[in-house]
Design goal:
- The chain is α/β, with parallel strands linked by helices.
- Helices cover 40% and strands 17% of the residues.
- The chain contains eight helices and ten strands.
- The strands form three sheets. The chain has a four-stranded antiparallel beta sheet with strand order 4-5-7-6, with helices on one face. It has a three-stranded mixed beta sheet with strand order 1-2-3, with helices on both faces.
- Helix 1 packs parallel to helix 8, helix 4 runs antiparallel to helix 5 and helix 6 packs across helix 7.
- It is globular.
- Belongs to the trehalose phosphatase family.
Amino acid sequence: MSQQMRAIVKEVANVFPTAIISGRCKEKLHEFVQLPELYYAGSHGLEIIGPATVSKHVDQSRASQAKENGLVLFQPAKDFTNVINKVFHILDQQTRSVPGARVEHNKFCVSVHFRCVKEKHWIGLARCVQRVVECFPNLRLTQGRKVLEIRPLIAWNKGKALDFLLKSLGLNDPNTVFPIYLGDDRSDEDAFKVLNRKKHGLGILVSAVAKETNAVCSLRDPSEVGELLKRLVMWKQKRLFKYL
C-alpha cells in the first residue's frame, strides 16, 4: 500500500467503521497496511480482529460484547491449522519444478500464485494442485486472480465475514448504515452477493476491463478508489460541520 493510499484509508477510518477483508493472513495484512484503526479479516475472513479501541462510529455495547465473544480473535477454522500446514509443505515441494510458481502460507489458506508462470504451464500446475487437494476431503480448491487457493471446507467466505462484521458491530440497520464494499478479485463476489441479498449497500468492482460481476458499480483502478474515498471523507466532514 502506498503512503498516499494509507493516508486516505486512515482518514476514512477516522469517520467511518472500516475493514479490510483479504485472502492473506492477518499478520501480512498488518504488515502491508500498518493502520491500527481498522478491522482486519484475514484468510478470507477465517480470522477477524478489531482495533484495540472500539470505533466511536459503531454500536459501543454490541462491539464490546463482540470483542468478548471473539471479535478481537475470531477463528472459525482454527481446527484446520495442522492440515493447512501439511498441504503447504506438500505443495511447496511439488511445485518447485514449475518456473514462477509461488506457494504462500496464509495461516488458514494456502495460495498458489501463477502470475509469473508461463501460460503453457498453467494446466499442469492446476492438475498438480488438484491432485493434492483430492487427498484432503475437508479442504476445497478455489481460484482467484492468477491464484489457486486451498481453503477449509466450511461455510465461510468474504461475504460471511462482511455479514459477521455488520451484525457484530451493530451496523446492520438499513435506516442508519449504508455499507460500501470494494473488491477486485473473484472471491469478493461473495461479499457483493451479500449486499445484493440485503438489497441495501453498494458493491463496487475494481477492474480495468468489463467483466461479469455481482457488483453494482465499478472503478477502473486504485487511483479511482482513492478519489472515491477522499470524496466520502469530504462528504462526512461537511455533514459534521453542518451540525456543529
